[in-house]
Design brief:
elongated, mainly alpha, two-stranded antiparallel sheet, 152 residues
Length: 152
């Protein structure tokens, strides 16, 4: 208790001791967190780049820590969702704009295209034989509008 009463009576001395303790704590913390750079340099392991083709041909294993990134890459996106039916390139091949990389299964889209082509051929045939005339098409449209009007 004598220490506390002494510190109360000597405010300047106690403030200086407190500031000195804070400065020592800050300096000690900075020294403790700084690691010597010489030991870090000795812990670095050298990494060599291995080609994927040579890796497949007999290199038993490669172990490394880190992130592997390609020098150049592209995101591939499709406007439709479908399973892949064929892949036309291999790993490491160069591709050029407009080149087919893969094909998607498109049986349902092909069926829709064939149906649209058949409908076009039917319409062209009816037009060329005169089976559908402008007046009959106009009258059919007027009848449909009148029928819808009467129903409402």
């Amino acid at each position: 208790m004598k220490i506390f009463s002494y510190l109360r009576s000597h405010i300047v001395v106690s403030t200086a001791i407190a500031l000195l303790a804070v400065v020592i704590a800050i300096i000690g913390g900075r020294i403790a967190t700084n690691k010597p750079t010489a030991s870090v340099a000795s812990d670095v392991t050298h990494v060599t780049l291995v080609n994927a083709a040579s890796f497949r041909q007999g290199v038993p294993s490669v172990s490394a820590n880190g992130i592997v990134q390609s020098h150049s890459q592209a995101d591939l996106r499709s406007q439709t969702s479908a399973p892949v039916s064929s892949i036309d390139v291999s790993i490491g091949d160069s591709v050029y704009p407009g080149e087919t990389i893969l094909e998607l299964q498109n049986a349902d889209i092909q069926a829709q295209l064939d149906q649209a082509k058949a409908s076009l051929a039917l319409a062209q045939g009816q037009y060329s034989t005169g089976a559908v005339s402008l007046n009959s098409a106009k009258q059919a449209a007027i009848d449909k509008v009148n029928d819808a009007y009467n129903k409402t």
